[in-house]
Amino acid sequence: MMTTIDGPDGRPRCRWCAGAPEFVPYHDSEWGFPVDDDRRLFEKLSLEAFQSGLSWRTILNKREAFRAGFANFDIDTVAGFTPLDIDRLLADAGIVRHRGKIEAVINNACRAQELIAETGSLAAYVWRFESKEAATPQTRSTSPESEALSKALKKRGWRFVGPTTVYAFMQAMGLINDHAQGCVTRAEAALARQHFVVPR
Description:
This protein has helices spanning 23-29, 38-51, 56-61, 63-69, 75-79, 83-90, 99-119, 122-126, 144-155, 163-172, 184-195, and strands spanning 4-6, 12-14. The protein is an all-alpha fold. It has a two-stranded antiparallel sheet with strand order 1-2. Strand 1 (4-6) and strand 2 (12-14) form a beta hairpin. Helix 2 (38-51) runs antiparallel to helix 7 (99-119), helix 2 (38-51) crosses helix 10 (163-172) and helix 9 crosses helix 10 (163-172).
């Protein structure tokens, strides 16, 4: 089975890009490139939690509404959300209105504050779990590293961070280069990783 498909410019990309037109720019400029910004990392963990049971296309198309509703995923601001904010978000048709997931994001912001106070940054913590194994791209939904990070976060009180959710986070944030062999972006992501300074 082919693992790539030609994009609108004729260049090969990961086959999942064919799922929706909006996947191509997301794939080309974000997915698999290393990230060390705490806000972006927290946003992605939060959106992956909302994706649980849904499609990424649904979440991607609602991303701007999520950003507006969750104060651009500023960790300190979200950690201070009150029951009034929960009610506000439950009434927001622009996002996925799931009380458990909304409450989980607020809880996770509080846990992120604790982690940052202890380790210096969310980035420094999650990059400890960077994947070192050269597995065949896009052949699994979890990894030993995602299972370890999931377990560590759950132990700290995080919610909606199962190993599959965490693996999708790691794929997107560049902790593993899971672009298909032959994908034009795989080499670009690999080069970005070479120049990336792992936060400590």
